[in-house]
Specification:
Blueprint: E1 16-20, H1 25-30, H2 37-48, E2 56-60, E3 75-77, E4 84-86, H3 90-102, E5 109-113, H4 115-122, H5 127-130, E6 135-136, E7 147-151, H6 154-159, H7 163-177, E8 189-192, H8 196-206, E9 211-219, E10 222-229, E11 234-239, E12 241-246, E13 249-254, H9 258-272, E14 278-281, H10 284-295, E15 302-304, H11 305-312, H12 320-327, H13 334-343, H14 348-376, H15 379-387, H16 389-398, E16 400-402, H17 404-429, H18 438-448, E17 455-456, E18 459-460, H19 464-472, H20 476-495, E19 500-501, E20 507-509, E21 512-514, E22 524-526, H21 541-544, E23 547-548, E24 553-560, H22 563-571, H23 575-582, H24 587-596, H25 619-630, H26 636-642, H27 647-660, H28 662-678, E25 680-682, E26 688-690, H29 697-725, H30 728-731, E27 735-739, E28 743-749, H31 754-768, E29 772-774, E30 777-779, E31 783-788, E32 795-797, H32 802-814
Parallel strand pairs: 1-2, 1-5, 5-7, 8-11, 9-14, 14-15
Antiparallel strand pairs: 3-4, 6-7, 9-10, 10-11, 12-13, 16-20, 16-23, 17-18, 19-20, 21-22, 24-28, 24-31, 25-26, 27-28, 29-30, 31-32
Helix pairs in contact: 8-9, 10-16, 11-14, 12-14, 13-14, 17-20, 19-20, 22-23, 22-29, 24-25, 24-27, 25-27, 26-27, 29-31, 31-32
Length: about 800
Amino acid sequence: MGNNIVPSTGSKDAKICLIGEAPGGIEDRTGVPFTGKAGKLNDYLLNLAGITRRECYITNVVKVRPYNNDISTYIKLGSSFGNAKIQDSKYKDWEEELYEELRETDCNVYVTLGSVPLYAMTRNVSSTKYRGSVLTSHPGVFEGERKVIPTIHPAAALRQYLYRYQIVHDYKLVKEHSTSPEIAGTVRDWKIARTTAEALQYIQEARQCDMVAYDIEVTNMELSCISIAKSATDVICIPFKTDSKILGESRTEPYFNPAREIQVMRGIAGLLEDESVCKLGQNLVFDASFLHSRYGIVTKNLNDTMIAQGILSPDFPKGLDFITSIYTTQPYYKDDGKKYMRLKGGNQETFWRYNALDSAVCMEAFPKLYDDVCKQGNKETYRVHVSLIEPLTYMQNRGFMVDSDGMKKESKKLEGELELLVAEFKEVCKQDINPNSSKQVIQYFYGVKGLAPYKKEGKPTADVTALIRLKRAGHHEAGILLDIRKKSKLKSSYLDITLSKGRNGEARLRSAYNPVGTETGRLSSGKNIEGGGLNMQTLPREVRKFFLADDGMLLVDIDLEQAENRVVAHIAPEPYMIQCFEEGRDVHRLTASLIFNKAEEEISDDDGSSEIGGGRFSERFWGKKANHGLNYGEGYKNFSIINEIPEAEGKEIVEGYFRSYPGVSLYHAWVQRRIESGRTLKNPFGRVRKFLDRMGHDLNKQAYAFIPQSTVADKTNRQGLLYIYYNQERFGEVEVMNQTHDSITFQLPLSMGYGVIAELINDICNELEKPLSWKGKEFSIPAGVKAGFTLGELRGLNRDSLQGDIEKLASTSIT
């Protein structure tokens, strides 16, 4: 802890006041606030926003350096809702001293850098939530209110590079607000529909608009309220549930009587299904899916702020709170809804206002957000992702029929295997250790055994990477623990899951889909609002056998064969790979032959044919692993960890790969030059990605992966999922079930006839095989077909004899 008081600096007549948490080591020595690394970065970020340090009055809440630079020795802040625990009574003295100091200033805006000054000035916590908001000081600071704008402490931006962009944005806002002490914001005319007539009148007016925004709130799996905004300042909340007290007990009651609720819902359905009115919202896959499943409403003509943000800036958060902080004048308000739903705090009208604001800020943010998307060159990419909302809504609500009894048996089997593994782990450790306790595992390896700890962000860790390293070093118990974690994950995430009932009472798995789930445009999926569902993009082989075709239906999976490898080969370009693909040879066998310096026909596909990895795998296996991992710049150390092999073996594979495929290295060099010169890449479909994170190896790896992964995702979505869904006259009986980055899974009725089924499959394959163009040259990715009646036992079909193969498959199943 420092003994030196570090006084404030700057003129008290400055228009901008910067308030930090406390001095650090350098400040303690120099006696000047913000002169260390964080201070120098802060000066730089101020300059980027057009502000100089000389223009600011700079101070701290605590004027002495805390022990270990840890401000929590004075005050510990909770994660949300203004929770704070004062650890040292001196904190209150420092706070009062700060207030006395600030009362002598005449600043137009007070900027809090970090959560502690935010709390001191406003009694809110979490600078990452409130940053970019124009707030007012709490009553204990000044006589009257003064303008406060929070931002993130620059010390955090030393660790997380992307925070720099947010701080610069906030400082530009500060500069704008520094010209006047007035606190002004958007005045919103928000109302609650007190009667059915009010609700229906507003809905009717909304149907005359070109675009409206809407948002739903769901509590206890029931529609609680819906808001509709005709503009950023004209919005209504229509409640469907209301809190009431009956005999002193709080209850949730219907807001309207049943007949009037039906009237209102019909009005809402008419608006949402009206294709002449564009409907705007945040994450409309959720809203549209819920309204479709509960009320049969199919929302048409959509725009989505989350999708726009995810395409524009995939490095940044996609939540409406972040979008609001960048594109609107609305201060942070999201805790109002969280407090009501999670803690039952706050009043009901605050909750309804929260619902109304969600629609209003979408209307305020979207025009500017969409304009940025178009300027970036991603207008078409955005429209494609918005078009995914309807088919994803269908997939979410249709779900997959599953063998629930089989899943339960498999879970029980794993339970027994886990019991044996846990017993073995404790026996090897000679201690009663809970394998699920990171604290106990860390203490065992680094305390009891005295091993040098593997660290993550400066702290000892027993994560998967650390355990692989420990296993590789000969610690058998680390290998057992890896098996325990793998089987536990399989059991909890894929077998012990919440299932729904289908139309005929069958068990169905319904997952939630995200149209901008990854930075490369891939979909993602996970649990739905009911807690059911899972990641459908990475289904383990062990659970695929439990996913079934519906009665009378045939499951079909069309896969773009070795798609990412083909894209890499042609954009690199890498002539060996291109020739291999054009001649119909196996690229994994080719890679293995080049790595092991053997003829392709001598490469074995038999497990144990390679000594690498303890003799468990084939030579072709390592060719495949190299192709999948090394196209994107994986170093030999990480390659060795991922594949659990000694570094010497990993180095042999990596060096052999790049020696064999010099074109891939040239592609990496080209990507690096593009990133260094403009941070931007574009794929063959015109999708543009700007890379904003810190320059270096990790960013380069993301960039290497972008064009291949996004190209395959765009092809699968545009020429697969969207092609099927939006050509109903052709594919009306085809039910799309899943998309897994480079494949489409669907089912269709056998009653259509084998010839018609073959014709439809070939139609989809031909669409997916349409050539791509890169630098004036065209190339195609062939589509392979598998079919069957369970996802785990699909059989490959020959495109040249498709009808006959389907007939044989069906007759075998019937037999």
